[in-house]
Amino acid sequence: MMRYAVVIERTGNGYSAYVPDIPGCIAAADTLAETEDLIREAVTFHLQMLREDGDPIPQPQAKAVLVEV
């Protein structure tokens, strides 16, 4: 099992998410919970398509940390 960092941002009308290690893998929805579900599905689908096309699977490299200031 691989664990990819996901960035979720609040937008004017909901949330959007992307995966830094998987270019083009994005999701957007009205709620945070729905966005999390959709990005999980998007990662699964994206990796499945890469495998089917014989393309390499990007290894997770991005890290996320919270910085207190």
In short:
By secondary structure, the chain is α+β, with helices and mostly antiparallel strands.
What do these coordinates show?
Helices cover 32% and strands 20% of the residues. The protein has a single domain, classed as Double Stranded RNA Binding Domain (2-Layer Sandwich), CATH 3.30.160. Strand 2 and strand 3 form a beta hairpin. It is globular. It has a three-stranded antiparallel β-sheet, with helices on one face. It has one helix spanning 32-53, and strands spanning 7-11, 14-18, 26-29. With 69 residues, the protein is α+β, with helices and mostly antiparallel strands. The relative contact order is 0.23.
Observed structural traits:
alpha+beta, Double Stranded RNA Binding Domain, 32% helix
Distance between the termini: 34 Å
Radius of gyration computed on alpha carbons? 13 Å
Could you give the order of the helices and strands? EEEH
Task: Describe the sheet with the most strands.
Answer: 3 strands, antiparallel
Topology:
Blueprint: E1 7-11, E2 14-18, E3 26-29, H1 32-53
Antiparallel strand pairs: 1-2, 2-3
